[in-house]
Specification:
The chain has about 220 residues and is mainly alpha-helical. It contains 9 helices and 2 strands. A hairpin with a 2-residue loop joins β1 and β2. The radius of gyration is 17 Å and the shape is globular.
Amino acid sequence: MGLTQQLACYALWLASVFAFAEWLRSQQVDGEWVRKVIHIGVGNIILLAWALQVPRWVGVGFSLVFAGLALLSYRVAILPSLNGVGRRSFGTFFYAVSIGLLIFWFWRPQQQVFAVIGILVMTWADALAGLVGKSWGKHLYQLGSLQKSWEGSLTMWVVSSLVMALLLVGYFGFSPLLLAVSVGVGGVAMGLEMLSWWGLDNLTVPLGSASLCFALLQLLNYL
């Protein structure tokens, strides 16, 4: 598939995600759920990019454009569903920046899987942890100005571990060591999410998860 066709696929995917989110917002769906639809939908484009082997400069370029739109959206209502939950956070900006950094660092043979790991941990684990914590979190704890729930934090650990296990085993083959790495790094991702202010978890969680997985697999001679 040529670059023009690839770009059309990515644009169609993103347009579909934002159109669906705007429709949900028009139906008076809770703003946090709408935001998570965007969070998950946009992040999963990395699977399409991986399958089509997008050039690194295209991935970085997309992330820079999205980061610019995110910053502008704090001032101008470009897409109200993007920052519509009434909280002070640069999470959307950090989200785009982390995708760009992961693609810049890892988008090369035998390393792309680590970019995918970082992005999908942020995409799925962080989003589901937030929704579980908001909807079903009963056992609360306080870290400075942050209030979290154990239900949300444990969701972060479980989903992070599952995402990494599926990707690592799917890429390298089954090994108990890979499962141990997934669970251990999943715990670190949970810790990074717990200690997040102003949306910084959208930077620390993906970069930390991907970098730690990469370092551990180097030590274990998988790379």
